[in-house]
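Re: beginner question about structure tokens

> Can someone show what the tokenized structure looks like for a real chain? I only ever see the sequence side.

Sure, here's an example I had lying around. Input first:
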Amino acid sequence: MKVIGIIGSMRGKNSREYEIIKRYLKSEKYKNAAIKILTADSLNINFCQGCCSCFNTGICPLDSKDDMKKVKTDLLEADLIIVSSPVYAHQVSGFMKNLIDRLSYWSHTFHLIGKHVIICTSTASSGSEYVLSYLKKIMSALGCIVIGELNVTNITSVDELNEQFQHIEIALSESLNNFDNINITTFQHVLFKSLRTNLIKVNGYEHNYWMNNHMFNYFTFKDYLMYKLSLQKKQSVDKKFEISL
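And the corresponding structure tokens:
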């Protein structure tokens, strides 16, 4: 299993989110996992220029000038993604918002379809509900399956944190073992249907992406997700068979 964590705090390894995520990943489940944790202070991500090149061509001209290309590769290769931001003025940090802006065109193509995601935040007292709600919506729009959340304040006890860990591990195991246990949101259904209706009528990068990935063959997000998960499972089995030979 490949795990990628992205922490939107400039405090990096000194942040509370880093401590929480590292503690969670000490679980026996991840002892053989390939884990990479990226922090805001270690990345150079330029501000989105609003040129819309990504929507029109699938290419961001800034990707060759900063670390975003590497971040995208890590996300695409991951089996589990952990996205975390501290609460700043009842929203995500500026770094996290900028990162999301640079990924926003993926919300039209569901580039991260079927990726399991944990969302995480920390705050001294309030505002966590806004950050968690926003991160859940964004990751869902990218095609991800949000399996749980980590929410820590100044008064969160170790027992409460461990209970959150346990809920996530149960949800992840159930989702991996049985596709029927995957939680698909109404938002994902509505977004898929709206995009399908609009993109099937127009030419361009997004239409071609949907066509090349057989997305127009499916009328609901769930149907397309099941197709992609079945395809990924088959590819995984074929790869293991090749290695055994």
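Each token stands for a local structural state, so reading them left to right follows the chain. The longest strand covers residues 145-152.
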